[in-house]
């Protein structure tokens, strides 16, 4: 199997982008990030791209006539570099049809809550304010909705009574950095099968579809 070519879209800090870079550099993921596209000229993700020799482009949506035109151009740039999987890593825009149609079931996103609970912005704050006792993160394929596409992997974490948005976000982020590269690895091994909104993982032995608090077992006594 040839090395998977990845394109990353990020708007900010880029810690998920970094976790993918790290997995590739430590040879746990047989992939290559061929392009970073950011809509934010001051995104820290750019510094990470420079440091690790990832080619990057700054594309500002307001420089395009319409949102669709922005996504048409984005798809063109990704196709030009033969990208096979598009990874949204803190990309703060709703992806529109031209990009989705160009990469059907080939765009992944990570969300900091257990979907379908708490979609949209501030998933961690929403879970806290709702009084949930467990939250986590979700890697899913992207469709035209807001965090509604087929779910690939989830990880659960507890919410403690004294948690703040910061402490919960930090706990969730550690798992984001585990499950995102894991989902990409499964994709690169061609082990992800999508039927409608059902995702199955070929050869899954229970532990791969999700990473949870080790106290949660498949068959608890
Ligand atoms: C993460 O919490 C991710 O789940 C959400 O946006 C945040 C991005 O963080 N989609 P980073 O830029 O990857 O550090």
CATH superfamily of the largest domain: Formyl transferase, N-terminal domain
Q: Major beta sheet, specifics?
A: 8 strands, mixed
Q: Any idea how many domains?
A: 2
Strand order of the largest sheet: 3-2-1-4-5-6-7-10
Per the CATH scheme, the topology name of the largest domain is Rossmann fold
Number of strands: 10
Helix content: 25-40%
Low-confidence parts = 213-217
Please tell me what the overall shape is: globular
Q: In what range is the share of β-strand residues?
A: 15-25%
Averaged pLDDT:
93
CATH class of the largest domain: Alpha Beta
Supply the number of helical segments.
6
Ends apart, CA distance between termini: 41 Å
Cα Rg = 17 Å
Ligands bound to this protein structure: 5-O-phosphono-beta-D-ribofuranosylamine
The H-and-E topology, N to C, reads as EHEHEHEHEHEEHEEE
The CATH architecture category of the largest domain equals 3-Layer(aba) Sandwich
Q: What structural category arises from helix and sheet content?
A: alpha/beta
Gist of the model:
By secondary structure, the protein is α/β, with parallel strands linked by helices. It folds into two domains: 1-104, 3-Layer(aba) Sandwich (Rossmann fold); 109-221, Formyl transferase, N-terminal domain (Rossmann fold, 3-Layer(aba) Sandwich), CATH 3.40.50.
Kindly list the characteristics that best describe this protein:
221 residues; alpha/beta; Rossmann fold; 8-stranded mixed sheet; 10 strands; 32% helix; globular; binds 5-O-phosphono-beta-D-ribofuranosylamine
């Amino acid at each position: 199997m040839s090395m998977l070519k990845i394109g990353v879209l990020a708007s900010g800090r880029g810690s998920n982008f970094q976790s993918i870079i790290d997995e590739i550099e430590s040879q746990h993921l047989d992939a290559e990030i061929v392009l970073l596209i950011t809509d934010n000229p001051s995104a820290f993700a750019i510094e990470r791209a420079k440091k690790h020799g990832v080619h990057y482009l700054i594309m500002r949506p307001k420089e395009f006539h319409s949102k669709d035109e922005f996504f048409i151009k984005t798809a063109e740039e990704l196709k030009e570099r033969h990208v096979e999987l598009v990874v949204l890593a803190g990309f703060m825009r709703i992806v529109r049809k031209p990009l989705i149609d160009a990469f059907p079931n080939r765009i992944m996103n990570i969300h900091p809550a257990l979907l379908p609970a708490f979609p949209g912005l501030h998933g961690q704050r929403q879970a806290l304010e709702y009084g949930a006792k467990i939250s986590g993160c979700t890697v899913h394929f992207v469709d035209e909705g807001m965090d509604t596409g087929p779910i690939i992997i989830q990880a659960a974490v507890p919410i403690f009574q004294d948690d703040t948005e910061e402490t919960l976000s930090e706990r969730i982020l550690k798992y984001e950095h585990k499950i995102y590269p894991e989902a990409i690895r499964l994709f690169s091994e061609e082990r992800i099968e999508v039927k409608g909104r059902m995702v199955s993982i070929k050869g899954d032995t229970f532990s791969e579809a999700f990473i949870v608090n080790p106290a949660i077992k498949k068959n608890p006594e």
